[in-house]
Structures are given as structure tokens and as C-alpha cells.
Amino acid sequence: SRVLECQGLPIVNGQCDPYATVTLAGPSRQVLHKAKKTKVKKKTNNPHFDEVFYFEVTRPSSYNKKSHFDIEDVDEVDKMEIRVDLWNASNLKFGDEFLGELRLPLKFLRQSSSYEAWYFLQPRDNGNKSLKPDDLGSLRLNVVYTEDHVFSSDYYSPLRDVLLKSADVEPVSASAAHILGEVCREKQEAAIPLVRLFLHYGRIVPFISAIANAEVKRTQDPNTIFRGNSLTSKCIDETMKLAGMHYLQVTLKPIIDEICQVHKPCEIDPVKLKDGENLENNRENLRQYVDRIFTVITKSGVSCPTVMCDIFFSLRESAAKRFQGDLDVRYTAVSSFIFLRFFAPAILSPNLFQLTPHHPDPQTSRTLTLISKTIQTLGSLSKSKSANFKESYMATFYDYFNEQKYADAVKNFLDLISSSGRRDHKSIEQPILLKEGFMIKRAQGRKRFGMKNFKKRWFRLTNHEFTYQKSKGDHPLCSIPIENILAVERLEEESFKMKNMFQVIQPERRVLYIQANNCVEAKDWIDILTKVSQCNKKRLTVYHPSAYLNGHWLCCKATADNTPGCTPCTGGLPANIQLDIDGDRETERIYSLFNLYMPKLEKMQEACGSKSVYDGPEEEEYSTFIIDDPKETYKTLKLIIEGVGTLEQEHAQYKRDKFKKTKYGSQEHPIGDKSFQTYIRQQSEISAHSI
């Protein structure tokens, strides 16, 4: 028996050091030979063993029916089997982990002298041991299994191109992505593959901007903006879940871990108070937790992923244009996502957002519910907040937070995460002030013979520009557009023998050197300047950590003032989260959904025809679809149905070829592959039926 190789073994506790044991077993599963073992292959789940084991069975002279069997009987040989068990060599005290086994009856081998095939590993076989029904409990499961066969990328080009153009279609309700949302039973079904596809191809922001803008135009009351389970809401939820996972880890995880471990009593409902608990102490415990989480969230603006900020910017713009008389709507449009659909649910159910491995215990869960309710209300910026609570004890507790400083902190946070360094000339919004204050700056040497001395100036940063003036309210002496900020980095103390300095690097190697009042202020300015400029196309990758003085750079001693930087830029925060997404897999998923809901696509085509020739009351079966432009929608539907039809033919052809050509036992279809066996059975039935 030659054990060749394995592929895709499970990784157990972060490691995989596999080995195989090979055993020859008799008719009653008794072991005829001591198990033989391969070498352990370290740190791989695709081990290549290529080891040979020999087994020799001879009839002993002292034949004993109880311990041996008569190998002269051919039937007995057929009942023998080779068993290969895969194990993970573990350092843990309870021994090595079983990964799976395969059993190979010798009767297969007797048909040919050599037999080579791939096998699926199976769970351990209990042999003839049967458990009484009473020995185990019962478990009811509802399992959904989806299998996608993904072709190479070129097969998907027609359907993918139609989908990726969705953001540019006028009106957006006539686009392929919007149509998918219309025909799917649940908007979530459509949102998951669409978001992943658009994120993969860098088109998520224009697509969500387009569908959000269309939804805002249909919204009559600013108080209900983005409150429904629309395609827009589901797509933004899904984007935040994917792109914001790291953001949640750095903001909420430390304090959520503490709440789960410390178990401080925080019950503030007098009816639910346990014996020995003090209501005031519990209120204080809860208040401290809420305060800490609120501060962590409202100070985390610079960590918010760029893709989320760009989406929030477009939501703010659409809301401000649609409801120009309502100054709060630009905030509620953003808070309805970042607070109500991101932070509050993550606090309430941290296990669903990968913040904790398990569902919290009942006491912790109650604490998190109370915190989540309060944070949600703080973030909503509604006028009469105490009235938001059905429970009088929550309204009483909320009085702690009825101060202007909380509303201001929320607005400043929302301003930062919904500002974009990209100028939008159609924007009706005034520039958003992000930070201002006195600092000391060194003259940039714009005048040829001017002195390069240090002066105190009032600095002001908006999402459009970074300026300084003599005093607050004066005319700016210098203005740097955000797109001209190529890097923001600390400056070594050796340069001017001054602490807390940083540099703002601009085109043509012009550098503004600034000293902040203290190290905390310096960090805040660096973070926020980096945040607003991190999408600039010409951002630098290297910089000089010290100044150019007396004819050379103090850091690398290079003499030319235009020498490229000698140190990699810190880059601040990642401009975008890298996601492991397979664009073809997502297009295949979307094809499957269109195929599943083909009757609805055809019904939508009928609705387009009906709308374009008849302007009276709609038939009830058509009224469920949003169709703003019947001609454009019909045109897109035609392209979708053609693309789906072509892919359906390709799948049918692939299945026919697979049935004819694939050898059972090949790597593509190992022995034990139940799905292939079922497929063969189905094909046989189809063939028999057609005959």
C-alpha cells in the first residue's frame, strides 16, 4: 500500500502536522497487522507522503478459528480491507486529533494489480456497534446547502459588465443590480453578492450613492429617512459588516471583553434588582460603561474606513439636497447607519460581529442591551430623548446624558466620518470644520530672501482645505487644498531642537513644519490630516523624518534638496480594507439568483410593456416593482435574460461533459464524493426516462 498525498486537511487549533496510519483488517474488522505509520509532515495541510507499506498474510500452522480466518477461502480475502487513518500530531495532553479515515476493500484490488485513486476522508466508522435510541438526545436542524460551479472569468463578462454599469444607468431603477433587488424574495439575498462584487471591482461607492439618492427622492418625511429594509439599507449594512470589521475590533472589542469578564452589576430596573444589589451603584456602573463606549466611538472618526466615509458623504449630500429646510437631516441620514445599524447591534450581539466567540451570559447580555439602547438614543440626535423610552427607569437614567456636550460630540464625529477630501462642485454643503486651534509654524520660505522664523498662527482644517491666519476670524495667510497634502508625518526633534513637531508635505517638495502645544494635540492633528488626505492619488510612499538644513538632509545626509525620502511613510490608517473576494464566484451567485427568479424577471418585462402602452391604474401583480422608465428597464431585462440563458447553457454542457469524462477516483471526484454519486444516479435516471 503506497500512501501518496492529501489535500485540504482541516487546520486544528491553528496548526496541521499530519501523519497517516495504515492497517490491514479482517472480516470482523479485527486488526491483522500492527498499524504502520508515515512520517509526520510539519505545518502543512497538503502533505506529500509517498511512503510504501507491505502487508503479508499467511495461514499459520496453528490455525485457530477464534483469532484467525481461513485465507484459502476466497470470500474471506474479499472481506479484508486496508484502512488508512489521518491524524494531526498534537502536543496537547489528550493526544493526537483524528482527521478522517478511508477503508479500501481488497476485492477492488484483486481486479487489477495496481489501483490508484483519490478518496474523500470519512468520519470514524463505529463498525457494528449500535446505540440505543435513548442513549442520545435529538437535535432539529434546518440546513441550507448551496453549491456553485464557477467558470473562468471570461464566461461571466456579459452579465458582469451589465451589473457593474448599474451606477451609471439613468434612472438607477432600470439597472441590473436594482432589478436583482426587485425580483429577490428578500433584499438581503441580493445585497450580499452585489456588495461583494462591487467592493471587489471598486464600484461600491457610486452604486450605493445612486440607489441611496433614488431612495431619498422617494422619501416624503425626513424622520423616516433610511428606516426601511430597502436595497440601499441592506447594501450599506453588508458593506459596513465587511469593511468595518477591523474598525469594530479596534474601537469596541477591548471594552466589550472587559464587560464580559468583570460582570459588574448594571441592572437599573427596580423590579429586576437582585438581593443585595444597590440601584445607585448599578446606575453608576452602567453610566461609566456608557460614557467609556460613547467616548471611544466619538473619538474613533479617524479610524473609520474610507469606503464607509465616502458612502456617508453621499448620504449626507442627498439628504441635505432633498430636505433643505431641515438642518438635522444631514446628521440623521448618517447616524441611522453608523449608530442604529452598526455600533448599537454590535454592542447588543457582539458574537454576531466577531467581537466575542460565544453569546454572552444572561447578566452580561442584559448589561449590553442597556448600553446599546442608550448609545442608540445618544446617536440618534432626536429632540426629546427621554420620550424615546417606554420604560421610566431608562428615561431617568438618560437624564445623565442630557447635556449639550454629548450632542456636540456626536455631531463632530458625524461631521468627520461624512466628510470627504474629494471636492464635489455640485455640493450645496458648506465646508465642514474638522479641527482648529493655535500652533507654531516655521515660514515655508516662499519669499526668496525672507527669514525662516517661527510664528504663532491660528490653524483651521475643513474637508476642503488646511489654512492658517494671524488670529481666529482673520483672512487666511495661506491655504493648502486637501488634494495637495501628500503626506503628514512627525518631525524628529533634532531638526529644530523642538518637541511635538510634525510636517505637512506638499507638491514640489514644499514642506510646512508645525509645532503643536503637546504630544496629544500633535497626534490628533497628524491623525485627522492623514484621514482627510489618505485618498489623494499622489500620496507619497517615502519621506524625510528630519529637516533640510545647512545644505543637507539631517536624516540621510543627502545634499540635494530634491532627494526622495529615506523612510517609508507611516500612512496612518489603511485607506481601504483588503477583502478576500472572488468576483467570479459572486457573479455566479447573482446568475443563480436571476435563474431562480426567472418567472419574476419575465413578469417584470410584462409590467414594462404594460406601463409603456397604458397609463391607467396598474394591475396589482405589477405594482410590486419599482419601474421609473419602462423602456430602459426593458432593455436591461433583455440583457439579463440573454446573459442568464447563455450561462445556463454553459452549465448544462459542463454537466453533460462531466458525466461523460470524469473518472470516479480522480482528484476532481474522489471516492466517497457523495455529490458525484448522486449526480451519476440522477443522470442515469434522466437517461432511462428519456429512453
TrEMBL record:
Residues 1-119 form the C2 domain. One of its GO terms (biological process) is negative regulation of Ras protein signal transduction. Residues 432-534 form the PH domain. GO terms for molecular function: GTPase activator activity; zinc ion binding. Residues 186-380 form the Ras-GAP domain. Keywords: GTPase activation, Metal-binding, Repeat, Zinc, Zinc-finger. PROSITE patterns: C2, PH_DOMAIN, RAS_GTPASE_ACTIV_1, RAS_GTPASE_ACTIV_2, ZF_BTK. Pfam families: BTK, C2, PH, RasGAP. PANTHER family: RAS GTPASE-ACTIVATING PROTEIN 3, RAS GTPASE-ACTIVATING PROTEINS. This is RASA3 protein. It comes from Leiothrix lutea. The gene is Rasa3.
